[in-house]
Amino acid sequence: MKSIVFAAALAVSAGAAFASAERYVLDPSHSQVVFSYNHLGYSTTTGMFSGFEGEIMFNQEDPAASSVSVSMPVVAMITGWKPREDHFMTEDFFGVAEEDLITFNSTNIEVTGENTANITGDLTMNGVTKSVVLDAKLNQFGEHPMAKKPWAGFDATTTLVRSEFDLGQFAPFVGDEVEVKISVEAQKAD
Predict the structure, then answer these.
(1) How many folded domains does the chain comprise?
(2) Is the bond preceding residue 73 a cis peptide, omega within 30 degrees?
């Protein structure tokens, strides 16, 4: 979803010291995609994905030529209530098989500030691919105090219209717009 992310934020790091494209991999233990939507006007319901995989290819000489790709298993969704998770996996929503993935692959990076960028990419979910824009921010870049290697942290946000991904069951009573908040850490690959 909205997965996902984040190459441009690396690209805008004023202190980044890279000579050419370098590969960074997401730290699955510190990367989450949290989504929320309005439930019948009574509450804001949330869910999340964690433990997913992704990589950033960063090009210091041409940051806009950097890229990001992320994938996460649909069945890894956590909502905090097992019956809801089970319902999301039915034909009412994802009709999911164990190997079904949500993927994001960047197609364009626009640096918008010292530590910010818009990352446009193809989000594929439920068999539908749509272009989405992630509003990304570099939180911190530097040597990880325990791993002793370059590390970066990013946040990003976007809004999805779930019916555009054939996930519109119960709309408009259950909100069609889904707010997505992404927070990830990425480490320089060995």
Answers:
(1) 1
(2) no
